[in-house]
Specification:
The complex is a heterodimer of chains A (436) and B (293). Chain A contains 20 helices and ten strands. The longest helix of chain A has 22 residues. In chain A, strands 1, 2, 3, 4, 5 and 10 form a six-stranded mixed β-sheet that branches. Chain A is α/β, with parallel strands linked by helices and 436 residues long. Chain A has two domains: 185 residues, D-Maltodextrin-Binding Protein, domain 2, CATH 3.40.190; 204 residues, 3-Layer(aba) Sandwich (D-Maltodextrin-Binding Protein, domain 2), CATH 3.40.190. About 3% of the residues of chain A have low confidence. Chain B has one domain: Orthogonal Bundle (MetI-like fold), CATH 1.10.3720.10. Helices cover 72% and strands 2% of the residues of chain B. Chain B is built from 13 helices and two strands, in the order H-E-E-H-H-H-H-H-H-H-H-H-H-H-H. A two-stranded antiparallel ribbon of chain B has the order 1-2. In chain B, strand 1 and strand 2 form a beta hairpin. Chain B starts with 11 loop residues before the first helix and ends with a helix. The chains are: A alpha/beta (436), B mainly alpha (293).
Amino acid sequence: MKIKMLAAACAVAGAFAAPAQAQTEIQWWHSMGAALGERTNEIAAGFNASQKDYKVVAVYKGSYPESMTAAIAAFRAGNPPHIVQVFEVGTATMMAAKGAVKPVYQMMKEAGEPFDPKRYLPAVAGYYTDPKGNLLSMPFNSSTPVFYVNKDAFKKAGLDPEKAPQTWKEFAVVAGKLKAAGQECVYTTSWPSWVHIENFSAWHNLPIGTKSNGFGGMDTRFTINSPQHVKHISMLADFGKKGWFTYAGLGNRGDARFSSGECSMFTGSSGAQATIRKLGKFEYSVNFLPYHDDIKGAPQNSIIGGATLWVLSQKDKSVYKGIARFFTYLSSTEVQAKWHQDTGYAPITTAAYEATKASGYYEKNPGTDVSVRQLNYKAPTANSKGLRFGNFVQGRALIEEEMEGVFAGKKDAKTAMNEAVKRGNDILIKFQAANK
Amino acid sequence: MEKRVVFRSAWLPYALLAPQIAITIIFFFWPAFQAGYFSFLLQDAFGLKTEFVGLQNFVELFNDEHYLKSFKITAHFSALVAFSGIAISLLLATMADRVLRGALAYKTLLIWPYAVAPAVAGVLWAFLFAPSIGVFTYALKQFGVDWNWALQGDQAMLLVVIASVWKQVSYNFLFFLAGLQSIPKSLIEAAAIDGASPLRRFWTVVFPLLSPVTFFLLVVNIVYAFFDTFGVIDATTEGGPAGATQILVYKVYHDGVKAGDLGGSSAQSVVLMAIVIALTVAQFRFIERKVQY
């Protein structure tokens, strides 16, 4: 009897609960850890509070490659998340996966949500559009490498702290003086390939690969063994021998060497500013990347890193409407401006940049607009729009392997870059074959 | 008289074995079969397009000098880990065997590192030897050593070997200690009466009697170096710099999981599987013949 009553009660409760359950859940897998994760959760919570039909659930899935692998595995198992955050080097892989992803421009159009790719910074949108100018994924967090200078170290070496070197020639002079003044670590870098191959190329308007860095087709091949590339890498190796450049390792390992005050100059992500601001016990400035003044057309504009949101194909088509509404919320000026100011990522819409500027934020926080000014320095060319190489996770790893060989003095720059091109092309050929 | 238990039931033995068999099938045979199957395919990351390519993945693998280099690195790494791991723990065990006072504390402390996860061991040593802030780095600098394993392949190798050995020494130590304690004291005393020095007693009496343990540990340590050190490497060098610490199992993970090249990675797993099977077979044949029990 009791059981029967309980069952009845449950049935009644279930019937009443049903309308509330109609809220559709949207799974959002991302790689924003720590403070960034909190900001990400705020965005989801903001959207959930703004309407009643959908509930975005933000789930931290580990590092960028981990989230991407997890999403791919989930897709293969037939149960993909709705939205996954994929880093820029995974773009070509996602784009090639026709049928597995729902192009964002198409989804927005079908859902009747306003969506204009022109609202986004050209350097950001350009990276993620198809040849027809359609955005395939939703821009989210974008950064670009910038050049940090420890002003206190400059002062100690008798250098003008307000004058950061603009060219690599000036850099060499400054580096020599810092070393002579007893600076142990003069310069270091994070993200070796992203800064010194990919952004070096864009900043000097040099191609990274044929077919407009891969935008023109999958039969692209690397061109990073040009005399300019070789010269730049061998210059860094030479700096290393002189004690002007300390190699810190892959990824963002260089960040800590600068924020601890150990190294006086540093190239790293603009997104590292939040940490440097928090940990650095010294005055610093944020500057444009140095360039080679003997390369014509330099400086051009830098390219982004970071990630976009991809929508994976769903069996239940009705959920796309909710995702589209969430994307409209996400790209609103208020949300974007707040995200940019809180995180140090570049503003991705022009409106968010203007709003931040109007609020006087850049004057109060000098250096925070360097990334966007550098991204917008000139209108992007075929060489500086971005890059699109298949399996570039693997490609970038082997480029860095070759760079390490040069920095360790085991290889000369020319041999290493030729080798990087040869090995990189093997990967591109394989990707092309797998995605015919 | 030998006592034998016989199951009369037709299904009970199978039922009792079933969980074990299920685990073996699900966690070994099924993945192994999948790896074998995928190694003949060329597939995009999402599995949308699949093409049968025969042995192409293997041909590419063996034409890739970096893969062959990874073999050499693995051999080098395993030899270093197994040899130094065994040598150090044998030394510690012989010492511990003689200790009279505080033996328990000494032994307990030596066994502790075994409880540490490989990744944690890696991070620990990476901190001690961190290129800029490490305690050892600082000490080395006083001796004029420029320590930067982010750049110097040999130093990176040394770091992962130290971390891996440190973790494995406890395990080896336990076995050696047990082995030493099972050697009859009368044998050693007899040798002593015959006038053999402690060193000579060790090499002519103790060490041969430890040979089954040593051989067992050699095999276990090599397998450990092949597979379990993954955590150490992933948490410290990630195979770098310039691939100097990229052992085979790390390359399988890197190419398959990080780079999404399932075919190539599966082919590598198959090769790795073949190596381990060969090693195991060699072990059993060798143990049967050469080791004195």
